[in-house]
Amino acid sequence: MSDIRITNARMVNEGVVSEADLRVRDGRIDAIAPQLDARAGETHIDAAGRYLLPGLIDDQVHFREPGLEHKADIATESAAATAGGVTSFFEMPNTRPPTVTAAALADKYARAAGRARANYGFFFGASRDNAAELAALDPRSTPGIKVFMGASTGDMLVDEPAVLKDIFSRATLPVVTHCEDTPTIEANAAAWRARHGDELAAHHHPEIRSADACWQSSQLAVDLARKHGTQLHILHISTARELELFSPGPMQGKQITAEACIHHLSFDDRDYASLGNRIKCNPAIKSAEDRAALLAGVREGRIDILATDHAPHTRAEKEQPYLQAPAGLPLVQDLLPALLELVARGELTIEQVVEKACHNVAERFAVAGRGFLREGYCADLVLADPAATTDVDDAHALSKCGWSPFAGRSLRGRVDLTVVNGEIVWRDGALTGAIPGERLCFDR
Ligand code: DOR
């Protein structure tokens, strides 16, 4: 691995944009200074005023391994991640088998070793009957405990009050939740089926997976966390109303945090007409007003973390009729370009992007030595050009599923270089072949 010297960068870090050079040595950030001199044998990259950011940490991806490798696997999806500026990911437990035992967790770490292009952590799933496994969990082995408080892909629903009380009262590490109230969804589905029969289509999804279903479940999660003092992070908030459950301002010191995902910030219910099942996901993409409120929530600090919920399904699966088509969309390759598009529109600032897709994720989940541009930290970096565009099409999708919901869109922002642990993994539109991903350390 050669040293890397990046010069003339506009470095975005800890709320400030500054002109700086940065040197990488032995996988770490060796120096950051207004000007760094050349050294023999190094790789020199002239950033020419482009943004230099800490690599993004996506805390919510589904890479489908083991058991669903026809959709995706750790090797393919981690490659797609690096193209999207993501240098670390936390993967979800709704695989087959689900990650609800220590053995299943160990199996995932073993599968990722030597195959992941980005750094990896795996969530541990709560089930109806794995209380003993949860109690024995090493807090350093996982970013947190995932609870599907609403049913989604996989059979992982946990909504019995006694089980939820047990999980929330005993958890020694962050609990992250998927919040949608399943009885509400089932009642809506029955009513909509009776009314529309075979005419049911993707645009009905936000009426079935309704705003009320989200509100009820998110409110319950917040109540439980307050009652039991749980560290709670609610994933993929999708409605304006839920925002009132979260406090504005900086994340530091909060017991309850919230997340928004790029699809809920980039699409709204008008897009079902052209994209149909391609944007069917749980929680559903809702109204333009919800989307605008979520963006305001990010700016106010009610939303602390930005992520993807990257959830690949094959084209053939998505082309089935609405009721059969699985929920979820592949997003990880588009994360930074889509966030830069929101910056170009004036919806977010580049400092907010770095705060919520890098710094806050590292702090919330105690990721050691990453998420910031600091001397001594791991060299996970992204060089991005806000003046260039990413023309998204299915042909360029690196995810095994081979498509993107952003296909046909031109996003104002492009990932030119991604460095993981000091190795260049993505450069000028191509993977380099390096596979430097490491297991993440959770410093607790
Ligand atoms: O749309 C979704 N797809 N939401 C989830 O919660 C799960 C995900 C999947 O795994 O496909």
Describe this structure in words.
The structure is a single chain. By secondary structure, this protein is an alpha/beta fold. It is 28% helix and 23% strand. The strands form three sheets. Strands 1, 2, 3, 4, 5, 15, 16, 17 and 18 form a nine-stranded mixed beta sheet that branches. Helix 4 crosses helix 7 (211-228). The protein is globular. The structure holds (4S)-2,6-dioxohexahydropyrimidine-4-carboxylic acid. Residues 62, 94, 152-153, 178, 281-282, 311, 326-328 line the site of (4S)-2,6-dioxohexahydropyrimidine-4-carboxylic acid.
Question: What distinguishing features does this structure have?
Answer:
nine-stranded mixed beta sheet; binds (4S)-2,6-dioxohexahydropyrimidine-4-carboxylic acid; 444 residues; TIM Barrel; 13 helices; globular; alpha/beta; single chain
User: Structural class of the helices, strands and pairings?
Assistant: alpha/beta
- What is the CATH class name of the domain at 55-364? Alpha Beta
Return Rg in Å.
Answer: 21 Å
Low-confidence stretches: none
Distance between the termini: 30 Å
| CATH homology-level superfamily of the domain at 55-364 | Metal-dependent hydrolases
How many DSSP E strands?
Answer: 18
**Helix proportion:** 25-40%
Q: What is the fold named in CATH at topology level of the domain at 55-364?
A: TIM Barrel
Form type: globular
Q: What is the second-level CATH architecture of the domain at 55-364?
A: Alpha-Beta Barrel
Number of helices: 13
Main β-sheet, in a few words? 9 strands, mixed
Overall average pLDDT:
97
- Bound molecule types: (4S)-2,6-dioxohexahydropyrimidine-4-carboxylic acid
Q: Per DSSP, what share of the residues sits in E-state strands of 2 or more residues? A: 15-25%
